[in-house]
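Entry 0007
Protein: Flagellar motor switch protein FliM
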Amino acid sequence: MVDVLSQNEIDALLAALSSGEMDAEELKKEETQKKIRAYDFKRAVRFSKDHLRSLTRIHENFARYLTTYFSAQLRTFVQINVVQVEQLPYDEFIRSIPKMTILNIFEADPLEGRMVLEVHPNVAYAMLDRMLGGQGAAPNKITALTEIETIVMERIFNRAFESLQEAWRTVIELSPRLEALETNPQFMQIVSPNETIALISLSTKIGDTAGMINLCIPHVVIEPIMSRLSVHHWFVSQKKSRAPEEVDMLSSRVSRAKLPIVAELGNSSISIREFLGLNVGDVITLDKRTDEGLRVKVGERLKFIGSPGTIRDRMAVQVDEIVSEGAEEDHDE
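Output (structure tokens):
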């Protein structure tokens, strides 16, 4: 981050230069010297800013899907938002979460390896309370889950992974499945302590209860698809990818659209006096010869050249020629 000088610091610097206390040439030499930046090998940078921005976009959709899912399941006000997406060592993540929490360990084929959805006890127990008929209040004391509570929790978060699958659909087709539910972080070792992870933090509010949901994705798990997390690939794939059912629906609607088709026998211009004087049997001369083809328009565009005729005592037009796309009419006036 670039340091910004205050006005007082700028004035002091100018005064030092003018009085000779500070040499401008020395400053230039300092600027030309190589800058040294400290690098911590325990906090290896594996995700670029581009990757983190893509992960943010993906999980903003995940947060919206989760909000809809939990609101329907819990029948109360639920609000979930992405707070931060960062990279840090796995060991640091483990030390940052409570000693007693809800850890949903899952896999997502075709990716190899395990990921974790950590839910703060306040949020998890509020969900549990709502599912069992309560008001969704946070517990006064966090205790170990009973067998029945564990089963309820597993059912809640098993279906929540459908939202994760939908959010990642623009990048890869995942099949998340819950492998285990733990409450003690010390018993969970999915990667080595120094492995870099992407941590997506979601602020969660259920009624009056607030807490965090953290999604831990090890770099080694999503390394095979890192190239798909570039902004260019993300936008291109969004433009090109359409679900088959969406294409079928679009084709069906277009095929049922109705367009006016008009076969023009010809044109003629007469005065108002002549028009008012028309009687049965009078003939109006058109600008077309009888051996010339009829212009058939679809909407306002000339599409076909045809010949008049009848089919089963009904007037009809036989298509003799298809006008090339973009061809201009010769007789517009």
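Curator remark: The first strand starts at residue 78 and ends at 89. Strands lie at 78-89, 102-109, 114-119, 175-182, 196-206, 209-218, 261-264, 294-298, 301-311, 314-322.
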